[in-house]
Amino acid sequence: MTDFAFPPALILILGAFVLPLVQGTARRVLILGLPALALWAVWSFAPGSHVSIPFLEYTVQPVNVTATGRLFATIFCIMAFTGGLYAMGQARLLELVAAYVYAGSAVGVTFSGDLISLFVYWELMALGSTMVLWSAGTSTAWKASFRYLLIHLLGGVILMAGIVWRVYDTGSVAFAPMQPDNPANILILIGFLINAGAPPLSAWIADAYPEASPSGMVFLSAFTTKTAVFTLMVGFPGAEILVWIGLYMVFYGIIYALLENDMRRILAYSIVNQVGFMVCAIGIGTELALNGAAAHAFAHIIYKALLLMSAGSVLHMTGKRKCSDLGGLFQTMPVTAINGIVGALAISAFPFTSGFVTKSLETSAAAYQGMALVWFLLLAASAGVFLHAGIKFPWFVFFQKDSGLRPEDPPPGMRWSMWFYSFLCIAIGLFPAALYNILPYSTDYEPYTTDHLVTQFQLLLFAGFAFFALLPMMKRTLTISLDFDWFYRRFLRIIAAEFTLRSSHARERMEKRARARVEGFINRLYRHHGPHGILARTWPSGGMVLWVAVMLAGMVLAAAIF
Amino acid sequence: MNNDREKHWLYRRKNLPKLWMIQAAILVLAVLPEFFIHHHEHFPDQGITVDASFGFFAWYGFLTCAAMVVGAKILGIFLKRKDTYYDD
């Protein structure tokens, strides 16, 4: 198709800049209308249609509709809508504009048919998300946004290098499946993985996101990591290394979340954990596994946003983030607690929730491929999800001890957006066919078998039992956990401080030596030419007379002799 | 606030045993179907049968979670710092 078609991404990106121009109801209509319009635009294209534009000597495709891209674009639009509703009453205008540019660029990535458009949207996302972070307006957010931007600019540079190298090698800018078997593709893979929160640079998620505003983190949790999942799905399906990277991320997320005290950092680590499942499935690479990764990403965006909306409501109403300060809030925040629990059940893949019908595609894919070790590890990780997010978050925030805090439920916009996402979590769980029908590959997977129900209940309930049995070991402490970011927040700083110290010492020594040399020169000059210098002394006139007499006597003597 | 009667029933000390009993009952309920259904093995070709053994998902879930909690605790010894560590 080469007819004129308006890229859905631009509806959100350009629309974002109209937001400051209008006020009141018009702005609210735009906030909810733009994502809805973008969603309509996404579905107005038939799969396979694309728009090609010649650019330099290449053909770029800013609109290239695939089933996978459409699925991700759909959930991104729904997310922008719900996030907008959640943010409407309390977020700063700057945050909303930035969030819509950010969401639009994420949609843009999913519609990119070539690496050039992909890269442009990729970098726009980095800028948009940094602005979302900035707009929290605190000094910690300001600092965190710088670290965040540095990591993403680094990822962008690596991705750019890979793209240039690949285009130079192959002569094509098309965004097509590749293998990490040459340096160009490996650079592209690393660029994608940095945004996915893969090791070693996983720390940026838990470092930056929790510093955003309550609604800011809801937006941030959805787009960056999931576009990375999308690009990995399209670019590197079946790359075996992703299985092991994914498994590392899964357990990294659990362990760090278990050690964490800040409720939103717990959920941030949990993003790494969930994306790990998807990355692992992409590494498995079968149709079932890729369907699983796509479906899981779709469901995950909803329940993770729901959890963060619940946590954001608590933060908004109490101003507190630490589990050690919270507890007992279910008494006065029942809506927030109920929705938080629905999100927690969904992320844990409890039967009749969206997690149950999506994550099981991934574990089944491992089983069908005969990957026994991977399957056993994913199973343990599924239990671990319930442990670190499914129970830990609601327990410490809403139950635990009675903290004495008596906050009310948040304002209506925040409540409605939570109810909407809770509804989606359960609706997808009860009627998975609607989601299965828009997956990249057709599937006849049946999640509701007696065996699956029984085993899942056993796995999760006994994981919960482990939580309560070991509760004394989970006592919250006022601590953070060291991570890779220590290297750039402390180690490099120590090195830099040491360098400054040593180089200033060296400079001092050099200065001293140079000064000594100049002084020596001046002293010498002074000795010879100074007021007492042998060459500048004022000679007494008597002396002159004496010397002249001596010379005359000498000449007379000489004349007398010769 | 510390008066037992004013507290929500969930926080009353005398209700604690009841809460544990409810949990135990739920766990027993979860394991009951084991007597009636037989699980299929996922990897029969590789000679792995443990995943079809009695209550596998129950004890596997419990043990792996316990291992993760203990593992996190041990790593915490090395990784935990005061939460003001990075503050200037």
Can you characterise this structure?
Chain A is built from 20 helices and three strands. Chain A is mainly α and 562 residues long. Chain A folds into four domains: 236 residues, no CATH class; 247 residues, no CATH class; 35 residues; 33 residues. Chain A has a two-stranded antiparallel sheet with strand order 1-2. In chain A, a hairpin with a 2-residue loop joins strand 1 and strand 2. The N and C termini of chain A lie far apart (123 Å). The model of chain A has no long low-confidence stretch (mean pLDDT 93). Chain B is mainly alpha-helical and 88 residues long. Chain B has two domains: 37 residues; 45 residues, no CATH class. Chain B is flat and about 60 Å long. In chain B, 14% of the residues are buried. The model of chain B has no long low-confidence stretch (mean pLDDT 87). The chains are: A mainly alpha (562), B mainly alpha (88). Chains A and B meet through helix 10, helix 15, helix 18 and strand 3 of A and helix 1, helix 2 and strand 1 of B. Strand 3 of chain A pairs antiparallel with strand 1 of chain B.
Q: Biggest β-sheet of chain A: count, sense, barrel?
A: 2 strands, antiparallel
* Average residue-wise pLDDT of chain B: 87
In the sheet with the most strands of chain A, the strands line up as 1-2
Indicate the low-confidence ranges of chain A by residue numbers. none
Secondary structure category of chain B: mainly alpha
Spans of chain B of at least 5 consecutive residues whose pLDDT stays below 50 are: none
Instruction: Determine the number of helices of chain B (DSSP H or I, runs of at least 4 residues).
Output: 2
* Helix fraction bin of chain A: over 70%
Q: How many domains comprise the coordinates of chain A?
A: 4
Average pLDDT taken over every residue of chain A? 93
The most extensive contact between chains is: A-B, 55 and 48 residues
Q: So what's the oligomer here?
A: heterodimer
| Largest sheet properties of chain B | none
* Percent of sequence in beta strands of chain A: under 5%
Number of strands of chain B: 1
Q: What best-fitting shape of chain A do the alpha-carbon axes yield? A: elongated
End-to-end distance of chain A, in Å? 123 Å
Element order, helices and strands of chain A? HHEEHHHHHHHHHHHHHHHHEHH
How many structural domains of chain B? 2
